[in-house]
Amino acid sequence: MAKPWLLVAGDFTPLGGMDRANHALALYLASTGRRVHVVTHWAWPDLASRPTVSVHLVRRPFGRHLFGRPLLAAAGRREWRRLHADGARVVVNGGNCPVIAANWVHYLHAAHDPVVAGSIARRARRAFTDRQDRQAERDALGRATVVICNSRRTQADVVERLGVPADRTRVVYYGSDADVFARPTANERLDARRALGVSGDRPLVGFVGALGDRRKAFDSVFAAWVDCCRDPRWDADLVVVGAGAELPAWRERVAAVGLTARMRFLGFREDVPKILAAVDAIVHPARYEAYGLSVHEAICRGVPAVVSRSAGVAELYPAGLADLLIDDPEDAGEIASRLQTWRSRLEHWRDQTEPLSAALRARPWSTMAAEIVDVVDRNSA
């Protein structure tokens, strides 16, 4: 009889980031007939509807990670103890559940010191949460039978910052949904641009990322965009997809410099694939990015991405895209220069992006999931 699986993670949804990867693994396991137990705050309805999937929902009081994490860990430990006798295969995420299991690291708290704007109380809460997360992460990875990393960058951080032996780590890159993130047709692109109110061939750049702290470096993007717009020849506009505590302040700053027409904030969106069909490039100078699924998905749609060289996804860039890699996310001048390099040869960068785009589309989520299953099976008693 096949061993049951236990997956413990904050969310299992197709909405992006680590949640998308967790969702893909759970769906793959269910599609292969395995019994799957999912301990989570939020599971997409398509999981609960599967006959072999049991979803164990855990409250997230007041919608706060700080209050939800210990409840998730406790629920995960209970299921781990219950299923342990059956030889369950167990995968937890980072510090969310300190049990003897495979640990899938999407983001390493020990690798980044968050910069948070706002009130003293908000900064103090974030610092406290970060300390808690780092300790939980260290405890959980110390118990891991194997640590699955989403990039070589993450692998190096796990080894160097937490002292996990290198031979106890494996790298498994994310997959893609080639149907959702296919290269858009001319009509799809036209419809997407119309939906955003874009007329003609005016270039459009996208930024996709949360605005709750400075990790995605929107502050650097803002400074670079102001710099670009000083040049009367700069004809591109920026659309910002993402929500967070700093969003109102950024809207005010953009208005204060008179660039409301050149930098538009769309807030949280569930139609990111359609927005990616409308843009000509994305800019992503993240200060820390374990992988960068939004960049990955943009490239799948054939969109060139100006991204931090330190991001995990940048490991996959061929030499022909090296001029789009940002060395210093703090350097707005460099970011502006990279954007101008892109703008000077639009068709060239589209063509240069295509081989990587095709390669990413050719790796489905099911391939990623099968690789994870193999790693876990090989490292389970």
Task: Characterise this structure.
This protein has 2 domains: 5-175 and 364-378, Glycogen Phosphorylase B (Rossmann fold); 186-361, 3-Layer(aba) Sandwich (Rossmann fold). 43% of the residues lie in helices and 15% in strands. Helix 7 crosses helix 11 (332-344). Strands 5-3-1-6-7-8-9 form a 7-stranded parallel β-sheet, sandwiched between helices. The protein has 381 residues and is α/β, with parallel strands linked by helices. Strand 10 (204-208), helix 7 and strand 11 (237-241) form a beta-alpha-beta unit. The protein contains 13 helices and 15 strands.
Q: DSSP strand (E) fraction? A: 15-25%
How many alpha or pi helices? Answer: 13
- Overall strand count: 15
Low-confidence stretches: none
Helix content: 40-55%
Q: Count up the domains.
A: 2
The appropriate CATH architecture of the largest domain is 3-Layer(aba) Sandwich
In the CATH scheme, the class of the largest domain would be Alpha Beta
Helix-strand category: alpha/beta
The best one-word shape is: globular
Query: What is the rounded distance between the termini?
Result: 16 Å
The succession of helices and strands, N to C, reads EEHEEHEHEEHEHEHEHEHEHEHEEHHH
As for the CATH topology of the largest domain, it is Rossmann fold
Largest sheet: 7 strands, parallel
- Strand order in the sheet with the most strands: 5-3-1-6-7-8-9
Radius of gyration: 21 Å
Compute the average pLDDT: 94
- Under CATH, the homologous superfamily of the largest domain reads Glycogen Phosphorylase B
